[in-house]
Amino acid sequence: MAKKAVASLQTGSKRLTKAIKMVKSPKSGAYMFVESIMAPELVNDFLNKK
Length: 50
Prior knowledge:
The protein is of the alpha+beta class.
């Protein structure tokens, strides 16, 4: 099943990466996960952004 998900991200000549980041909610203080699909060059910016 994981292979199917990875294969769907590599369509045509575009290579995409799924990034998952854990963020603390300011209201409740609980942690939640933020997911985004982007180009591999943008992953570091997404992970470093607060």
